[in-house]
Write a structure and sequence with these properties.
alpha+beta, 60s Ribosomal Protein L30, Chain: A, six-stranded mixed beta sheet, three-stranded antiparallel beta sheet
C-alpha cells in the first residue's frame, strides 16, 4: 500500500512524507512531484512529497490520491493556495507515468495550469509571502 508518514524535519521531507512548518523543503526530486499549500488561518506551509513507485514497490494509485486528500483536509490545507511542482511531465506519460492518477490529483486539488510547475530534478520547497505559497529553490 502507498502510505505517507510525517517527516521528522520539515526541511527534509523525503519520498512519501509530508511536513508542516514556516518553511518546508523536499529532498531531491527524481520522478517526484510535491504539493505545497498554506495551512488555513496559520502562517505555516504543508509539503507533501509524492513518488510514482513507493518504497515497497507499490505504484501510486487513485486510492492513494484519496488518502493524500484526506491528509490535506485533516491538516486544514487552504485549497486556494495549493501548488504542485516537479516531474509533472513524467506523471502525465502513459508509458511510465500515471496519467489517470495525475488527472485525479489535479482535479481533487483544484489546481489549474497556473498553479502547476513542471520542473525536473532538483530540490524545492516553499514558504509564505503575503499569505501566499512561494516556491523556494
Amino acid at each position: 500500500m502507498y502510505a505517507l508518514e510525517q517527516a521528522t524535519d520539515p526541511l527534509q521531507i523525503g519520498e512519501q512524507q509530508y511536513g508542516i512548518g514556516e518553511q518546508v523543503k523536499f529532498t531531491t526530486f527524481t520522478s517526484c512531484i510535491g504539493i505545497l499549500s498554506k495551512v488555513t488561518n496559520e502562517d505555516k506551509v504543508i509539503g507533501v512529497h509524492l513518488v510514482l513507485v513507493g518504497k515497497k514497490g507499490g505504484k501510486i494509485t487513485e486510492d492513494a490520491v484519496m488518502r493524500v486528500m484526506m491528509l490535506l483536509e485533516r491538516l486544514k490545507y487552504d485549497r486556494g493556495t495549493t501548488k504542485v511542482l516537479g516531474h509533472i511531465g513524467i506523471w502525465k506519460e502513459k508509458k511510465e507515468g500515471a496519467p489517470d492518477v495525475w488527472q485525479r490529483l489535479k482535479n481533487s486539488l483544484g489546481v489549474d495550469e497556473n498553479r502547476t510547475f513542471p520542473w525536473g530534478d532538483g530540490t524545492y520547497g516553499g514558504t509564505l509571502e503575503g499569505g501566499q505559497v512561494e516556491i523556494t529553490f
